[in-house]
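Hi there, hope your week has been kind to you so far. Would you mind checking whether the tokens look sensible for this chain? I owe you a coffee for this, so here goes:
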Amino acid sequence: MFIVVIKGNLIKIVLLNTVFICLSQFLFFSLPSLTLQIIFTTLFLLLINTVIWFSKINVEFSLHWLSVYVGFFCATAGFYLLKALFVEESSDFPPGDAYFDLFLTVFIFGLLLLLMLLFINGVTYIIHKFAYKNQT
């Protein structure tokens, strides 16, 4: 029974992060400057996962972050598929060039977001260790 609850909570965290990270990716491309995009995405991820962490969804710290990374990879794949459905191919470019450009854009954004997630994960791990040092 306890394992089923943990699996259900992990699925909730994965689904929430998938939806919110995919939404973040759509909003990311609508912001004008790279600095604004990075600040917005980082704060958005921190806010969402802080709310999830302090909600009734109780999981271990490492499992929570594992769920965030799984949600990130699912959101990146979903974002690529959604954008690929609506790619407009120009007659000036060779066939498939628009899809390759989209792939490069999503890959670069995904790499940037992965670096932000690793940084946030490191900072929250340090905070978590100091906050729960006396309880372990």
The first helix runs from residue 2 to 28. Helices lie at 2-28, 34-53, 61-85, 97-131. The two ends are 25 Å apart (CA to CA). The chain has four helices and no strands.
